[in-house]
Amino acid sequence: MVHFLVYADMFEVEGLISSPYGPGRRQHIEQVIEKYAVDYPNLRTYSQDYPTPEALRRLTRQGAIDSGAPAAGRATEGSNWIVSAARRNDPRPLWVLVWGGIDDLAQALHDAPDILPKLRVYFIGGPNKMWSVDAYDDLERNHPSLWMIEANSTYRGWFTGGDQTGEWDNKTFVTKHVAGGGALGSFFATQLQGTLKMGDSPSVVYALERTRDDPTRPGWGGRFVPVWDDRKTIFAKNTTAGDKVEVFGVVEFALPIPAGMTRAHSARMIFDNRVPAAGVNDGRVLRFRFSPRDAKVWSYVIRSDYAPLDGIEGQFTAVPPGHEKTTRRSSVHPTWWTDDPDPSMAEGVHAGAKSVSQWRRTFLQGFASRMERCKMPTSSR
């Protein structure tokens, strides 16, 4: 958020929406805007295009509180704001940078599918996809022609790999170039024990690139490849570690409803002892969805007020997709891109991350320069 605000003069901001998962709310966005307000007089001397703090407050909306599939009656301030912004009489596309759950975007398209051609989406997926998998699944199934970059691990190149010597080390950079950089810099330095992470920043710099209409071209925000088909696995049984699924794909359990279970009963499947997925009883099967963010063996247990279900356990193994599969462009999603699976573009296990980390010194120099603007007006430099 701090990174975005010091570059805000380069955007026409349409809205700031608080979205799940986690405890973050609208007021937390407003708290960062308060820091921006302190630095605004200095920032304004560098560019008259910085939006006023008052303008940003007027554009801030509360999105969904809880994750879930879109449905009638689930519209939020945030989803309605996306619809209204997309329907404005403006020929340019509306860029939506998703840093949390994708629920508000899914709800907006559910309520107003006519806005789809206007949207350009950069989704910081990975854990955000894991926590908002039902909304993601709805987008993938019902809006396959959406223009979207799905960055499940590429974003990690902002803080993993690249030149981390001397002042470019994650902690040293914050101490030397961010802390003390006005109110925004001081606030930034209090987050994550003063260590640089900024996992959402690749979407910010990508939106500033001249080649943003072609995600396959290199740039600070990453280089991506067309998505492939069959990333979703559906099981109609309890599974074991021998059952394989695609890492960052969608795993759906469509389990037969046991005799005696009614819609009055509830069930949750808890993955990795921490991620709950509410079961949906459609009258035929009980559905649970999940998206594994790591290649490993995942365990789960069902918790239910219907005794025959309660305590059922299982496992499955998430693995990277095979090379041949990833070279076949999706026949269903013509304008959907994701992390480059080429091993040469990985940082450790993080596919595509090197397409960001290779620019590390350059983009951090740019950020450091912007933070200098918070300290003093241009006339004092």
Overview of the structural elements:
The chain is α/β, with parallel strands linked by helices and 381 residues long. It folds into two domains: 2-228 and 327-380, Ribonucleoside hydrolase-like (Inosine-uridine Nucleoside N-ribohydrolase, Chain A, Alpha-Beta Complex), CATH 3.90.245; 232-320, Immunoglobulins (Immunoglobulin-like), CATH 2.60.40. Helices cover 30% and strands 19% of the residues. The protein has helices at 2-6, 26-44, 53-58, 77-86, 103-111, 127-131, 133-142, 170-178, 182-189, 201-208, 323-326, 354-357, 360-375; strands spanning 16-18, 60-62, 94-98, 119-124, 148-151, 224-226, 232-235, 244-246, 250-256, 267-271, 275-278, 280-281, 285-290, 297-304, 313-319, 336-339. The strands form four sheets. A five-stranded mixed beta sheet has the order 3-4-5-16-6, sandwiched between helices. A five-stranded mixed beta sheet has the order 8-15-14-10-11, with no helix packed on it. A four-stranded mixed beta sheet has the order 7-9-13-12, covered by helices on one side. Helix 5 (103-111) links the parallel strand 3 (94-98) and strand 4. Helix 9 crosses helix 13 (360-375). It is globular and about 75 Å long.
Rg measurement, Å: 22 Å
**Shape call:** globular
Low-pLDDT stretches: none
**How large a portion of the residues is in β-strands, by DSSP E?**
15-25%
